[in-house]
Amino acid sequence: MARDPLLRDAVQAIKQKIINGAATATPEELAYLGTAIDRIGGRATVLEVEEMGDIKIEEITEHADQVKSAAIANITSTKNAAEASINSTKNAAEASVTATKNAAEASINSTKDAAIAAVNTASNAAITAANNNRDAVIAQANAAKDAMLADIAAAANSVTQQFVFGARAYFYAQL
Question: How confident is the model at residue 171 (pLDDT cuts 50, 70, 90)?
Fold first, then answer.
């Protein structure tokens, strides 16, 4: 395949003039450029047109690969940023849940400990009061027992004196 760089450069130069001047070109100037393209095109062979097509296909394929690589890199970067954001949000949420759980447990434990201390204090007070009442009852029972024993002992002494001295002597002793 023969390449004619001059022919290709000429076509590109005319194409660039059309692009640059299309907005401001007069109909005569556009006709002139069109005629120049026709004359150059008449000189182009089928092989040159095919070769130019192959070149453009390579350029388009290369450009497509670049765009694809850039898109993949952009998607990968976006995915990585999204994953990092999701992980950061998840970690923050987990930390918040853990902190809330710990605070709730601490509050519950504090309330439980205060309730246990109050129950223990009330229990100790009730036990102390019950012990004091028991001791008072025991003291009264002992006092009553001692008084009864004294009465029984006095009665026993009296009976003993009656047996020993007789009823009259006892009667006189009591006066």
Answer: low
